[in-house]
Design goal:
mainly alpha; membrane; transmembrane; DUF1304; 128 residues; transmembrane helix
Length: 128
């Protein structure tokens, strides 16, 4: 079950790396603007904020990945703590998005599903 939790956490991390790329690298591109429902003017006006926000997503992914590596080398306590910190924060951010911006429900669910599954499976793995 630790392997399943690690795979789910890795998928969540990869999704957040992709979000980092959209927010910090391609924010003003037509495809990213369409994904976020932004006009060119809105994307330009929010570019600095998005750049910063993208790095938050990258850092959460890095925490989860370091936790996965720790789990893989047998450091169960450290690995589990880091995976919980990374994917738990991803899940919390998705819940904040869902509560504060109900019109972005689909994005919140997309952003939060893999972290939620990783948390559940890791809790089960540690409890069994």
């Amino acid at each position: 079950m630790i392997i399943a939790a690690s795979v789910l956490a890795a998928l969540a991390a990869l999704l957040h790396v992709y979000i980092f790329i959209m927010e910090s690298v391609t924010w003003t591109s037509p495809r990213t603007r369409a994904t976020f429902g932004l006009s060119e003017t809105e994307a330009t006006a929010t570019k600095e904020m998005a750049f910063n926000q993208g790095f938050y997503n990258l850092f959460l992914a890095i925490v989860a990945i370091v936790g996965i590596v720790a789990l893989a080398i047998g450091q169960l306590a450290v690995g589990a703590a880091l995976v919980f910190a990374g994917v738990g924060s991803m899940l919390a951010a998705a819940l904040v998005l869902l509560v504060t911006s109900p019109d972005k429900r689909r994005a919140a669910i997309t952003q939060g599903t893999l972290p939620l599954l990783a948390v559940i499976v890791l809790v089960l793995a540690l409890a069994l």
